[in-house]
Amino acid sequence: MAMKMKRIAIISPSFPPCTGNSFLFSVSQLPRICFFSYYSISAVTGNENVNMGMSKPTHLENLVIHKCKSGSLKLDEALGFFNSMVSVRPLPSIWAFNHLLGALSKMKHYSTVVSLSRQMMTCSEIQPDIFTITTLMNCLCNLKKGT
Description:
Layout (H helix, E strand, L loop, with lengths): L4 E6 L19 H4 E6 L19 H12 L4 H13 L6 H13 L3 H13 L7 H16 L2
Antiparallel strand pairs: 1-2
Helix pairs in contact: 2-4, 4-5, 4-6, 5-6
């Protein structure tokens, strides 16, 4: 019996600049950003410079994911990992980025997650998925609560 799963494709929108307490995007832009259809959970991209998680994880991906899961990740390490991840080709999978953003969110570095997400979204090779957007939205909500 084959199970249907959701397919998530993220369109690279042009986000307005983030100023003050404004969000990266408004709720009305969400339908433009996320498109849900059934069948698979693979992201859609036409660029071979992106590891979509289909191949064996690279050493960098394994290192990032292990460090995030261990709970011993520090902010400066996370920023170093992020800079390394956006510099290598092929780019690491979105899963590695999600682990990093999730770990930073658990450490309550909400503004850092928002900043790194903005940097990711300016790179056309990185295709955020539903987990990326959820982490970002949770951080934005937590920042809004703090004001």
